[in-house]
Design brief:
This protein has 460 residues and is mainly α. It has a single domain, classed as Amino acid/polyamine transporter I, CATH 1.20.1740. The N terminus is likely disordered.
């Protein structure tokens, strides 16, 4: 077993600065739940993903989220099989290493690195879009990429300094943004969507192909719930708080998404077809309901949510990079813990810099924030799916103390089957529309395999 796991299991080992125990242990259950919820980005689902699903699945959108919620509960239960083996900075990749060995654990960590990095670019792009939109409402015109860069820099400062403060800040941004959307849903529930029916009504029958397409987006709306596991080495009681955070975040998110997917679909049906899809759909719906300033409040909520999500994802990106550096996959210089802050500050800085460069390069190539979201969102989704699948396979092989093999096989086998089905559906659509993204993903995965093989350390 590699050095990261040994250090977590044997507190009497050396206390060098590069020892993962040097990461400051200050996190209780609440900041870990905040990390998971921010990694998911609740309001981002409301303003982007639900309108996308409504465009294809129509009134069956809530069915997509119901099936997705059941699938994610199954995946989270797979992670909980490893509750007696707290993860470190490498997150759920530590579980893969337990079941499949260090080489596959390294590949899972590399996949998470790609997932968190590309998801951070997505969130920063949407943050910049809403930031620019709010400035335009004030008749201010600045560089379109200003919000993207400013958001990344603020997140960098916070993520480097204090994991506990960042966690509570994420909790605040998610609470405010979620409350705003819930307020919109309350208006829909009490008043109804109002107005005349749209010229083109939504699809009302549950056609399997349309539900399948929506199901992929719905399942991927939950991606990031496992991000609390990257803070396992910084939790005060990781054996209890990390499993609680994983389970709580999934149950909270499932309940919220089911309410939103049902009520927001009723509202979006009343909008013209041209504005039903995209980040402007919910502000348009808020304005449609006749509430003064409601559209602006939705945009502010989306701005707060994407900021909190960016902070969560960049924090995860830095910690996974830190773990890979300790294993020799990435340069060892990234494996240093900040002496005063107790965070992997160097790895967070480099990860943020790479995300900014990627985002600015895509913008320079003429891609809009929506196009960046589609490209990087598909990239991160594929990486998350493969990481989850590796955990399911690892759980099948490793088992769990105190849990019968029949239950382990049922949970892990069911989780693997669901993930494979979603992965096949995702790839079927991506081959036709995102071929370039798949090529880049395959190339970066191959590079990761070479780096893992080169940096793999002998087992103790």
């Amino acid at each position: 077993m590699g050095p990261v796991h040994l250090a977590l299991q044997h507190p009497a080992m050396a206390t060098a600065v590069e020892d993962p125990r040097a990461l400051k242990r200050s996190l209780g259950t609440l900041p870990l739940i905040a990390q998971s919820l921010a990694g998911i980005g609740l309001t981002l689902t409301a303003v982007v993903n639900i309108p996308l699903i409504v465009a294809t699945a129509g009134t069956s959108t809530w069915i997509c989220y119901l099936i997705a919620a059941l699938a994610v509960v199954l995946v989270s239960e797979t992670l909980l099989l490893f509750r007696r083996h707290p993860s470190g900075a490498e997150g759920i990749a530590a579980f893969v290493a337990l079941g499949l060995g260090e080489a596959w654990g390294g590949m899972a960590a590399w996949g998470l690195l790609l997932a968190y990095g590309s998801a951070a670019v997505c969130c920063l792009a949407v943050f910049g879009q809403y930031f620019d939109g709010l400035l335009r409402r004030l008749d201010l015109t600045l560089l379109p990429v200003l919000g993207f860069v400013a958001g990344a820099l603020i997140c960098l400062v916070l993520a480097r300094r204090n994991a506990r403060l960042s966690g509570f800040l994420m909790l605040g941004t998610e609470a405010i943004s979620t409350t705003i959307v819930l307020g919109l849903c309350a208006v829909l529930a009490l008043k109804g969507a109002g107005g005349a029916a749209a010229a083109t009504p939504l699809q009302t029958s549950a056609i399997p192909q349309q539900v399948s397409s929506g199901l992929v987006i719905a399942l991927l709306s939950f991606a990031g719930f496992e991000s609390a596991a990257t803070l396992g080495a910084e939790a005060l009681d990781p054996e209890r708080s990390v499993p609680r955070a994983l389970r709580s975040s999934v149950l909270i998110t499932a309940a919220v998404f089911l309410v939103w997917s049902y009520l927001l679909t009723l509202g979006l049906e009343q909008l013209p077809v041209a504005v039903r899809q995209g980040p402007e759909a919910l502000p348009a719906l808020a304005d449609h309901l006749g509430r003064p300033g409601a559209g602006v409040m939705i945009e502010i909520g989306a701005l707060l949510c994407t900021f909190g999500s960016s902070l969560a994802l960049l924090s995860c990106l830095g910690r996974v990079g830190f773990a890979l550096a300790r294993q020799g996959v990435l340069p060892r210089r990234l494996s240093v813990v900040h002496r005063r802050f107790g965070t992997p500050a160097r790895a967070i800085t480099l990860g943020t810099a790479v995300a900014v460069v990627v985002g600015l390069t895509l913008a320079r190539l003429g891609m809009t924030p929506d196009a960046i979201y589609d490209l990087c969102g598909g990239f991160s989704s594929l990486a998350f799916l493969l990481a989850y699948l590796l955990v399911a396979i690892a759980g099948w092989r490793h088992g769990s103390e105190g849990v019968s093999w029949a239950r382990v096989r049922g949970i892990c086998g069911g989780s693997a089957l669901v993930l494979i089905a979603i992965l096949v559906a995702f790839l079927a659509g991506a081959v036709a529309s995102q071929g370039a993204m798949l090529i880049w993903f395959a190339g970066l995965t191959a590079i990761g395999a070479l780096l893992v093989r080169r940096g793999r350390l002998p087992s103790a």
